[in-house]
Write a structure and sequence with these properties.
single chain; alpha+beta; 10-stranded mixed beta sheet; 3-stranded mixed beta sheet; globular; Peroxisomal Thiolase, Chain A, domain 1; 25% strand
Length: 389
Amino acid sequence: MNVGIDAIHFYSSNYFMDLRTLAGVRNVDPDKYTVGIGQEKMAIPPPDEDIITMAASAAHPLIERDGKDNIELLLFATESGIDQSKAGGIFVHGLLDLPARCRVVELKEACYSGTAALQLACSAVARNPKTRALVIAADVARYELASPGEPTQGCGAVAMLVTANPRILAIDPEVGLFTSDVMDFWRPNYRDQAVVDGKYSTRVYLQALQDCWKQYCEESGRGFSDIHRFCYHLPFTRIAEKAHERLARASGVTVTPEQIAQQVGISLDYNKIMGNSYAASLYVGLCCLLDNEMEDLSAKRIGLFSYGSGCVAEYFSGVVQSGYRDRLLTDSHHVLLENRTELTYRQYEDIYNLAFPTDGGGHTFSRYRTGGYRLAGVKDHKRLYEAVL
């Protein structure tokens, strides 16, 4: 029996800023962003959009199409948590009106938590194949203004239904794992913005990839040529190209720029115009590959590398299922990305500086363009969400 991804859909903000605009304000060459890190735009959440609204908007089309019966597990992966106690997934559970017979847990380990959720969901479904699991990864990447991380900002959420006999991607059981206590990226409770040592984080990322790949190959008996397409965690798209070169070299393979573009490039296009979505970014890349690869990927194996700073990493793979295109929501993704509203720098800075109220009083938030759900306000320290479908 196979277990894996039976449905997948992502959501991001309806607002973005072009990085050429940011480059002009910061007085830097736009190529530093568009070529150096491979980013073109960054998605910006309005004041009434957060990880909960994005998560619910990502999951809604799956629930609407496939129903909510037998969903007995909701795993919510994020490093942008909104409460020290209550799992963000509980809010999503309520907004989607999921069955009461359902375990709901929030998972955190930087950008790796989406993969942890997926693998835990696969184990749960394998134990009881009659059930389904809903995995959602949602995050907002936020750095200080004018910091090196600023142009990599973004936001997004990916929802996946995990089932037995999946119709999109059957997850292979073999994995390679790596954990090391490092401080390459972190966000203390008292800060809204992340702290990152970018160059060090890239070195750790690449070392973790090499160690995970070696284990994966030993566990599976597979090698570089057994993987048809490759997806990588994407803090910025240029790192995927560096990672693929490292992976090929570790496998004794030489890859040309044309081969890198074929094996990796198609998975990068959404991230280029969304920016980093932390726990969701690997799966935004997977969506991008499945949506836009012209070749039929049926029966082809996709390799996936997940990295979370701090750090935990995993290399795993899955086999694309016959008829997978019938399960994709490609049009929804394209419509979202093609119909976003561009912000000026001043609009971006105004949204950035708008602090979330912490006085416990009653506050109502203005309505912006969102998906089917929005953060309407806060009262008595309670966030108030509403459906606007």
